[in-house]
Structure formats: C-alpha cells, structure tokens
Design goal:
The structure is a homotetramer. The first copy, chain A, is an alpha+beta fold. Chain A is about 45% helix and about 15% strand. The longest helix of chain A has 22 residues, at about 170-190.
C-alpha cells in the first residue's frame, strides 16, 4: 500500500496524527516524539516541535524540505528533524518514519542488552542496530549517522534515548513500532525470572515471511485505534 | 450449564463477543486472539480473522465446519482455526475454546518455568501441558498436535506464544482463562522476590472440588463484565 | 467516630458499598472479597456472596447474625462469613471488617517474607500476624483461628490468600486496608533492587501516634472516592 | 517567565491546582502531597491540609505567611508547611515548591541507591541531595534542615518518604518534578536487568544547557494537562 500516492494531503496528515496519538496513548511516544510521512522526493510532513502529542490535530502537521525549511504550515519542525530528512535522503523505499521514546526498548539499551526476537511479531524487526550515544539527533551529521547505522534495517535503537522505525507507509511503520516495543517488553520481563527463549533463525524467517502482510498491519492499527476511541 | 443447548444463535454470539472483549480489555487477548463456541457436532462459531477484538460485535462472528469452510457469514475465520476444529473433533465434552495471548502465562513458558498452583482459583487448571514450539497453529497437523497435547486437560500453554483454554460452556472457559493468567501473574511476581509456596496436592484437590461451580464462574464473568462497562 | 451509633441503616450500607467499590477499583478486592459493619452485638451487615463487587449497590447488602442466619435481606452471605462473625464475637472494639485479596501483601506471604514497616502510614499496621494456611475460612473453627491469630492487632495476613483488616469504624478500616497494601507494594518493589530501610521502633511509634487520626482516614477515603468518581 | 509577577491571584491558584491534579493523576502526589507558589517575600499560596488532591479546586488554596499564619482563606495549611516556608526564606530565587510522594524516586532512597542521570531530562536535576530521615517535616527545625540540605539544588529526596522540588515558577517546578520521577523510574527498571548507563558529565552538561527552556517545560505541562482532560 502506497499511502502517499493514493491519499490527499489531509488524509496523510490525519493518518500521521492518528499514529502519534495512538503511540502517545500506549506510552510509546511521550511529550517529545515525532513522526513523518514522505511528501515527495524532497519534502515530508511532520508534527511541529511544540505540538502536544497526546492531543495532536492535523493543524499541528507541517511540511518541510530535507534541510528543514518550511514548505507548508507555519510552526517549527522538531529540532531532531534530521532523523527524518537524512533517512528520506538515504532510503528511497522509506515513506514513513517514527521517532519514539519507548520504555521497554530503551531499558534494554540502558544495560547493553541487544534486542532479541522472543515473540512472533518481533521477528519482523530482526536484528536492530544501535546508535551508541544518548545525545539528541539535532544536527545533520548526527542525522547522517542515524541513517548510515540504520542501513537497510526497519529500525534502529538510540542508547538511553529511544527508537527510530521506518516503513514503506505509515500503517507498516506504526505496526513495526508497536511490535518492537511489545517484543522488548516481553524480553525485559522474561529476563527478570530467567533466560528467555530466542527464536531460531528458521522460526524467525518463517514468521517474517508469513506475518509481513498489510492485513496484519491494518489489524494492529485497528486494535490500537479502537483503544484510542474507547479510552 | 449448557449454553449452546438453551440459547439461540444470537445469544451464543453475544456471549462469545463479550468474552473476547473482556479478555481484550484485560490484555489477555491482543489484536489476534480468537474464541469459539461449538454449534453442533460438525461446526462452531468463531470471530473472523480480520475482526477488531477490542471492538468486536456479533457481526464479526462466523460459523465454520471442522475443515474451516464457512457455513454462516462471509468473513474468513482466523488462520489458526485448526486449534478449535481439532479440539472439537477430539473432545466431545468441549463446547467452548479460547486462544489467548496472555502476558504472564507466556512469560513462564519463555524461560521454561512450568505453571504451578499458587492461588486458589489456579487449582482449577491443575498441571498444564506445554506445546514446545512457538510456531502458529495454522495447519491441520499442528491443530492435531495441540489437541493431543491438551488431552483431557482444561488448558494448554504454547511456548512463547499463548494459551488455549477449553470448557463445557463459554462461562466456564472464560473463567478458567482468567484464573490461568491471574495464577501465572502471581507466580511470576513472587518469583522476583523468592520462591512461591506451591499448593499441596491436598489443597489443590480441595479447591478444585469446592470452586468448580457455575456460581463462581458467573461471579467472575460479572466482575469482568462490570469493568468493561465502567471503563 | 462511631458510624453505627450515629448513622441509620441506609447510611451504613452506603458506606460499606463505597468502601468495597473503592477497593475493587484499586484492585485490592477482586470478584470475591467482602466487607462488613457491625449492626449490634449479635449481627452485622455484609455484601452478599453473589454480588458483583465492582458494581455493588446497597441492595447487595444483607444482615446476618453471628451464625450466618439472615436477619435482613434475602441473598446469601459469603461462605467465608465466619471471618466476620468470629471477629465480632471476639473483639467488642471492632465495628468494621474487610476481607481483601490484595496483590502485593499476598505476594509477601507467598515467599515467606514478613510485612515490615517501610513507609509512614504502614506504621499504623505494625507487625501483622500470619495465618499459615491458604485454605478458605468457610467453617466456624477456621473463623475462630483467624480471630485468635488476629488477637488485638488491626490486621492479619492469610498465606497465598489475602488479608483481613478491622477497625472501630469503616473509615478507619478502609484506610488501614489501603495503607497495608501500599506499604506491602513498596516493600516488594524495593526488594527487587536491594534491601529496604525498615523504620526503627521509635520512628514507627512516632508515626503511629501522629497519623492515627480521623482526619487522615477521611482524607484517604476522600482521595480514593475522588478517583472512583473520576474514572 | 515570572508567573507571580504577571498573573493575578486567581491565575496563580489555578496553575497550582492544575499542577497538583496532574501530579495526582500521574501518581506522583497521593492523598497528602502539597504545592505552593510564592505570593510575596513573606507569604505563599498552598493547598490546604485537608483538601482532596485528585479533585482540587481553587477554593482549596489558602495563603499563609512564613510562620504558617493564614493571610488569605480559612482552611489550615498542611502540617508540613515548614518545607515551603523555610525554602522561601532561604532561597529568594524560588517561586514555586512541590512536595511529592513519588513511587520510583522514593524506592531508590529506600535501598540507599543515589539518583543517577540515565535519561536526557533527568540531567536537569543533576545530583540530588538526600535528607536521611523518614520523619515528617512538621517543625521549623526540620524545615530548616530541608532548606539547608537542598542548598542551591533544584530538588531534594527525603528517605523512604518523598521529594521536594523547587523552581523559579510553577511550570518549571512541575516539569522538574515529572523528570525526577521519570528518570528514577528508568533507573529502577534498568537495575532489575543490569547496570544502567550513567550519562557522562559532558553529556549531562550538554542536556542541561539545551533542555532548560521554557518551551520544553510548557510542552511537558501541556502533555500532562492533555492527559488530565482526556482521562
């Protein structure tokens, strides 16, 4: 599914807003996470730096070029827009980026424990590279380092800081952000009472092949969305 | 109580919907759990694979035969319908099946810790067999393996994956699913600060005899139901 | 404050209902806890065994004599009414009893860890005796054992089962039930990362003297009550 | 931003009420925390001792002089008003004080574990001095000890009791109270599975310089405020 190609700007903004609100409701985004959707080869939509994540509206979405200059809207993008711009520059296949501050995933990085696949949906992330610095990604060189460490992976962890997840569209990106945190939570919890079983390469490959479907991504999205509206 | 015998189809669907919604609200079912109620010797009701569990309605319930062919409704059953069909085939006494993704019970399986009875209602489950594979139960042979491992027990754990609970009706099945998770939670939590007291065989038998009553199952159902409507 | 003396029956029932609903909302009472208020020297009010705790109303309150015979209302008292009757028989000073199933306090008993005072309000409980059996208190001899183990204390823990808290009125009884669980929670949590500081006898006595006030009990009640109505 | 100078009394009270209600919703304040805003060199606004924190209104705010004598309103200030009065006496730069009972920060003090900077916003607190006594601060000498131990720091921890946070205005004070608890939570959680990475002095200084901005404080406030209104 290519959201950007089929939707108009308002629909894209609406989906970006929903993704961030669902992540805030799930405590995967706190007061300062951000998400973006590619607008074209040289610009992207992103929530403004000052926006209230848990109460986000489409008015909080601006569009900036790959140098962070506003091309639509008047509020400033987040200081860490370099995460988005440098990934869009490096990865033509990426049309959505989420920068989250997820509790469980980050706890693993705080103690030097690598992410391991311990649950089916977690296989979709595979091995996740780590940026070994807690500093903010608020310069172009830092953004470039995030992009080069990410390489062709779907996600990267930032030590004692957070995560960056990418996708070919926002539905996929959102689902991966949720699976990353759910797998990390189970890994952390199991570590408290023993050594968690790590999926074999074969098991991991089987799940990746079977579960990487728009149907599952949409079901995950709908599950979180239903919680948003009932809470 | 034989729900299927006394209720009409809509009442059965309503009860199935309520059970899944209560389990989703309690985080025992996530975006992809499923439940079923036997319809007759050759078919059963089940929520569709694409349905949003936390916002389920009776329109999401379909009926399929033991080979997964639709006999009522138009949406597809879950890919793991084999869990239900093979158990209904093997166990005439079973009229309700729940496949949950419970956090605490699954954590025990992730570290190789067997379920132990550490709390009164947990005695109703007794020793719980384990299917030693994290793979999905999406083939007939896998379903047969679940059924044969289950044997005459009320529940089975699937390593790093989830649980299957059966009952002579949905009220009983739901209550057992709740007790399984509550007992596993206490077992896990106690393991973090010491070694939990495991009920003696005598204590276990006394509780099983005294607590296996429709009254308690209904009280448990009503307790969860009241939370659903107040949240 | 002597609630029973100044209030009429409906006010007493109302307060009992509120106490149980607040404890259910705080997960200190589950589907089968119960509470009572003394009616006179030979009877007490108690929620019926079948009542839904989280949605309790004054219609769920019955009155029974010290042998469990109904003197007001038509629903059956809990099977464990002996907890209440035997304490009222043994302790003239007690006018309210709560039987809770608190998570944290019970976890301590599961691993043989005694309750220790680690937080100011926890000093009001002091040392808490333990009934060393997980069995239900559903006979007169078991009720007598609870009463004799309780002695002159304000609370008793039941191994792998729950707690019983008593008070000269329901406000005091409720506040003590909340403090017991809050102290146990902190004790458990601290044990996971070290050895918690236990208050000296002197500190304990100072807090007991200063904090045992109707003002504090009412403030605690109001705090939980405000959460009940805003949730 | 100098709230007191620009706002009128009602606006100051409103902000104080919001801060305490947000902290109560986040379980950082329980039934007995309190907050204050400086009124002038010799008096301050504070919530009354008997007020219900989770349902606070501006009617619960009184003004007292530095000896605790009422200068506005009729309800009594908290018994621990000495925390506020002695800090206002000692620190001219302080215009807002919060006394919280935060779970995670307090757990660290219970086991003798010092607060360490393990997360970006946690750097704003730096090293936090400890008052090595669990007793209430309900005398002038105890208040003076809190003020002298606090020195020029933005916060102090009280062993097995709670925290005191100060700020040049309530927005800053609230944000620091939230960051303290969030950092302590991560420190505690990471300790359960390993040894958390502690920020280097250089990293700490960089974050303190970059993050100490009214923009971030306001965004944090708005984030918590949005949760208050949606819950």
């Amino acid at each position: 599914m290519e959201v950007a190609a089929h939707g108009d700007a308002m629909e894209i903004k609406r989906q970006l807003v929903d993704a961030i609100r669902m992540l805030a409701a799930a405590d995967i985004v706190d007061h300062s996470g951000h998400g973006s959707v590619r607008r074209d080869s040289r610009s992207f939509y992103v929530n403004s730096g000052a926006s209230t994540r848990a109460a986000l509206t489409t008015d909080d979405i601006v569009a900036v070029d790959l140098n962070g200059n506003l091309v639509d809207g008047s509020a400033r993008p987040p200081l860490e827009f370099h995460i988005h711009s440098e990934i869009y520059r490096a990865r033509e296949d990426v049309h959505a980026v989420l920068h989250t501050h997820p509790r469980w995933s980050t706890l693993l990085t705080m103690v030097g424990e690598p992410y391991k696949v311990v649950y089916a949906q977690g296989a979709l992330l595979g091995a996740i590279p780590l940026l070994d610095s807690p500093l903010s990604v608020n310069t172009k060189p830092m953004g470039e380092k995030v992009a080069s460490t990410l390489g062709a992976h779907p996600a990267i962890l930032l030590k004692s800081h957070g995560a960056v997840i990418v996708g070919s569209n926002m539905l996929e990106c959102f689902a991966l952000a949720a699976y990353l945190e759910e797998n990390a939570c189970r890994q952390y919890m199991a570590m408290q009472i023993g050594t968690p079983y790590v999926f074999s390469d074969n098991e991991r490959d089987m799940f990746r092949e079977r579960l990487w479907t728009e149907n599952l991504f949409r079901k995950t999205w709908d599950h979180y969305y239903s919680k948003l509206h009932h809470s």
